[in-house]
Amino acid sequence: MTENTTTVEGSNAVNPINPAEALRILSEKIKLEAVIIQRLREEIAKVIVGQTYMIDRLLIALLADGHILLEGVPGLAKTLAIKTLADAIDVDFSRIQFTPDLLPADVTGTMIYNQKSEKFTVKKGPIFSNFVLADEINRAPAKVQSALLEAMQERQITIGEETFILPKPFLVLATQNPIEQEGTYPLPEAQVDRFMLKVFLGYPTKEEEKQIIRTNVQVGGIPKIGKVVAPSDILRARELVREVYLDEKVENYIVDLVYATRTPEKYGLEQLQPMISYGCSPRASINLALASKAYAFLQGRAFVVPEDIRAIAPDVMRHRMGLTYEAEAENITTTDVVNKIINKVEVP
């Protein structure tokens, strides 16, 4: 290794310049790409009133190449927000309305016999799009939900003996109603673990609700959304997100948060041990690192700080652990558990 070559600890990259200079150059690149994000925000704001938290999480999933699950009662603009984001980006978009009678082939596609050629041909399903809106995903049975597994994880679909690579960028944006609602099915653990983020949505404020009324009843209706960002812009921004610096101390903090869900007693959280039936999978660590990089990117920073981890951890971890009957009897949620872990684990 030459004298002027420096390895940046924690990033697994070799830079021909010193770390401080590398971060400065990366910061300049991020500032230039921030224009894309601002364009997206401005276009989305034409339709979506408030819901800043939801929009930020949608952008994090988009930039970190992850999938997002939105949960909330009907009427909170979940579907509208996702469709608006897709409309603002020049990509293919498809919507799948999940219902109890939906079949896996309705999602992925199937083989159809052609009488003229006397051969089977592939008819692709709506999953073959850049953005796929899985609307009310928990209204369909588990076998249909599982049809998304290969697409979400491997970015490919197998129909018959053929395997098809899905387009880039590929993003599944799913909405679900609260499990307590009639006619809903809990998502299988293997399915829900594929989502980078799970976001809970609340009601708008009074001022926001008044603005929602005005937007929907104005002459001409809801404003039209223009395609202000190209797919290449998103792919380029994703590469920059991967370059955001993650120090080894911050990596250790991520691992500690995840391990605290598996062995809480080692972190002074003995009271949580009877509450947790199983802890977060390694996907939690991977997605927490990627999501925190995207969060730092949105803040205009070229490095991750512990506050980024604390801000995004509930959305990454809450759906990746199981609770015991004891916890459910005491009305303790996974979000409560994650918050207790965040408040207890030592910050670097």
Which tags fit this structure?
348 residues, alpha/beta, Rossmann fold, Helicase, Ruva Protein, domain 3, 5-stranded parallel sheet
Biggest sheet descriptor: 5 strands, parallel
Give the tally of structural domains: 2
- In round numbers, the mean pLDDT is 85
Multimeric organization? single chain
CATH topology of the largest domain: Rossmann fold
* Class computed from helices, strands and strand pairing: alpha/beta
What sort of overall outline do the alpha carbons produce when their principal axes are compared? globular
CATH superfamily of the largest domain: P-loop containing nucleotide triphosphate hydrolases
Task: Quickly give the CATH architecture of the largest domain.
Answer: 3-Layer(aba) Sandwich
What is the helix content? 40-55%
What is the helix tally?
14
Query: SSE order in H/E notation?
Result: EEHHEHEHEEEHHEEEHEHHHEHHEHH
How many β-strand runs? 13
Radius of gyration: 22 Å
Q: Low-confidence parts lasting 5 or more residues at pLDDT below 50?
A: 1-15
CATH class descriptor name of the largest domain: Alpha Beta
Description of the molecule:
With 348 residues, the protein is α/β, with parallel strands linked by helices. The chain has two domains: 33-243, Rossmann fold, CATH 3.40.50.300; 244-348, Magnesium chelatase subunit I, C-Terminal domain (Helicase, Ruva Protein, domain 3, Orthogonal Bundle). Helix content is 44%, strand content 16%. The protein has 14 helices and 13 strands. The longest helix is centred in the first third of the chain and has 27 residues, at 19-45.
